[in-house]
Amino acid sequence: MEAMALLDKVPGDLKLYIGGMFTLRRRDALKEASITHVLSVLRMPLDEELFSPFKHHVVEVDDLEDENLLEHFPATCRFIQEGLDGGGGVLVHCAMGKSRSATCVIAYLMHKHHINVSEALSQVRQARPIVEPNEGFMKQLELYGQMQTPEDVENTPAYQRWVYQREIELSRAVGQAPEAEKIRFEDEHVTDQSASFELRCRKCRRPLATSQYLVDHSAAKSANDQGGNLSTATAGRDCAHYFLDPLSWMRPELEQGKLDGRLECPKCHNNVGKYAWQGMQCSCSEWIVPGISLAKSRIDQVNKTTVSEIRRPPGLAANGNSARQNL
């Protein structure tokens, strides 16, 4: 039992342990804990002799905030579960047993027990108080929770959007527009068509966007922080532009590889907005990246309820009773 004390065990019935590289040299402790599976989360040359008795899985990542560890969560969760299902113990380690290994253990606990990041982190810190995932990994864990810890991360829209945002940030850092094939046109991925209003070209009335494609920024956030319950459009009423996700009608312009430019209505070719991959400042002072905007002076906002009333079949009243009354 004294040997087992040398390993940091996650509280509970699971034979799940966390540690650093040095943990692998505690052979008696590993044997006492019945370790059968070892998950290594680090990028460095490994002495294979250390792992010869165990089933071994390696995730090669550095302890950097911009590393993508999120894409590995399904595989690491499966590996941990496989070891536990086999009746043995599982050791998850990185170099120091502080950030990378902790992130994978937290992800497993979230997936296994359907708990949030804070609860899982608290459990792991009971076993190893020095645990401190870096800020980038913490954000990935938060997103993993928002995605409801899916078995398939890479085909999840939230993950694809996150990867797209990372590409935009990378392009911005080097002063270039993103590669055409990496631009995510949001209306090609969203199946939920519910929206409270449309944005139409003021000149020809062509619909250009709906409310679910608006990018929330400081005006809306500040209203919510103050306890308000305002929509994005209402909270941003003083802003001169609507900021949007890239939409498919913008494709001919956005795929040209330019850092910035104008957006024209695809029907009447009237100038309706502008874009800047490096970002632009809204009239409310918030900096939006990327900046893809429609000018309110060239756009009409039309409530969807109004649209449905306009499209209602002749003879059918708003409450739907007229037709029945005429029978």
Automatic annotation (TrEMBL):
The active site is at 94 (phosphocysteine intermediate). Residues 71-129 form the Tyrosine specific protein phosphatases domain. Signal peptide: none annotated. GO terms for cellular component: nucleus. SUPFAM superfamilies: (Phosphotyrosine protein) phosphatases II. InterPro entries: Dual-sp_phosphatase_cat-dom (IPR000340), DUSP12 (IPR016278), Prot-tyrosine_phosphatase-like (IPR029021), Tyr_Pase_AS (IPR016130), Tyr_Pase_dom (IPR000387), TYR_PHOSPHATASE_DUAL_dom (IPR020422). Belongs to the protein-tyrosine phosphatase family. Non-receptor class dual specificity subfamily. This is protein-tyrosine-phosphatase. It comes from Bimuria novae-zelandiae CBS 107.79.
